[in-house]
Amino acid sequence: MDFLTLLQRLHKHSTEFVVVGGYASMLLGSDMLTQDLDICVRLSSENLNRIYDSVDDLNPRYRMGPDKKTITREMATADSIKNLYLQTDLGSLDCLGRIEGLGDYDLVLQYAREIKLDFGTIKTLDFDGLIIAKSALKRQKDILTVKKLEAIRSHLKKDS
């Protein structure tokens, strides 16, 4: 799994996205591990094309469903796309149109913060957004992540 390279490729193609989920937690300092890269994306045809261009040479396949088909541009950019769950040579990439507890891409942007990486600046959910989203899922692993994020945020506030 090489999520940094996936992020770099998305950034290079000017994809509109916000990192959410477990990897966003890691970017904020959590030690929770994740098996996929979750991003909230604008579901416009232009942005879906950018996503496809970012992974086209990485053997992208549908991760959900029994046949795990290789995706084509037409499949990845269909008007009916709500979420795109991909398996690539660099790891799993989940492109989500909505985030539980927050809403669609434009609403998620209200909780985004910029983070500088070696290849450029990307957006990730801030502490508040991530805590809201993880709390809305109500899974045991997300409840644990919320507790860790609240502790990190509290520690950072004390230090500032």
UniProtKB/TrEMBL annotation:
<dbReference type="InterPro" id="IPR043519">
    <property type="entry name" value="NT_sf"/>
</dbReference>
<protein>
    <recommendedName>
        <fullName>Nucleotidyltransferase</fullName>
    </recommendedName>
</protein>
